[in-house]
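Entry for the shared binder. Reason: the reviewer on the internal report wants the predicted structure included alongside the sequence.
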Amino acid sequence: MLVEADGKVKEFNVNTADTDTAVDTAQTVLAEVESWAQSGSPPEGKNIKTIDELAKKLEEALYETHKGAQNQVHENIAAIEKCNTDQESSMEHIRKTTKVKVGERRDEHAKCRNEEVVIFKDMQKKCKHLTTWLKTTVEDTPKPEGSTDDEMVDYVEKMSGYWCGKGKVAEAKQKVCEDRKQDHRDKKEKCDQFQSQFESGFCVWRTEMIDVCNAQETCYDAARNAYDAHVKSTQVLVQKWKIEYTALKKIICYVNVWFNKDNHATVAGGEDTDVDREKLETCKSLKPDQTKMNINFGDAPEQKECSLADVKVHPGTEAFKTTEYSAWLEFVNEPSSCLEEAEPTKAPAPVPVPAPAPDTGY
């Protein structure tokens, strides 16, 4: 927009004006209008009408810009809150799905190991019985008496009679022992599979939780940075908006004095000149309430804790074996380690952008 020496105003597209241009425009027009008021020579009706239309367009655009900035604050805070709520929602989903599945595999493995212990103890009992029976049988073997041929023949006949049938008994007892050993081997193999599935599921659970925490950290940092950057830039704009707001309110005040109450195409004058001049002085000293241009920046939510406490002791840590398998330490295999996942590190709390000091508008 250009205000020429004769007071005529060239067209101006408010939709393409940035803040600095709008402020400069409002102040330039105000300077011209105040110059006319000081000279006592009001502009032509058509020119003042053009200025009136321009001032009101600029005022409307200013309000829209202010409203947009306030809405952006709400959107930025909502984006931060969403990072926290998404994390909570994702963790809740993991608790209801993956964690439950891991618990089922833990119970499945524990049940199997308890059954393995029973089979192992029974195997020990059966095999110990064989050992004891063999030892007792050997100790009860008839001892040779004498050394003559007749005496040795008598001893052999006794030995033959003693051992007759012992072999079948020994074989039967040995079979019982070997069968129980096989039962234990089969059970242990099954339990080892359950152990592997449990540990694998546990690592998946841990990975899912770490992924959620990392995603939250990335989301929060980006949303918080956007919020802080907007606050910082908008605080500067607020001061410019106040300057523009004051200028526009004064312009509109002057225009309202010059407009004829019945015909806005003409300029008031005649008998109302003294009254109008008093009104012009009022416009000159006008101090609009600039606080209307303030922005409520609210409070940015802090990043909520994303706890990994449930998976702190995981396969690969020293405490996992004694924590999960304390009842079967002699039966379980050495736990396989989870793949190392980069756990999120708590970033330093962002330095809050100070809100502007209270403004009285004067």
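Summary line for the report: The chain has one domain: 14-328.
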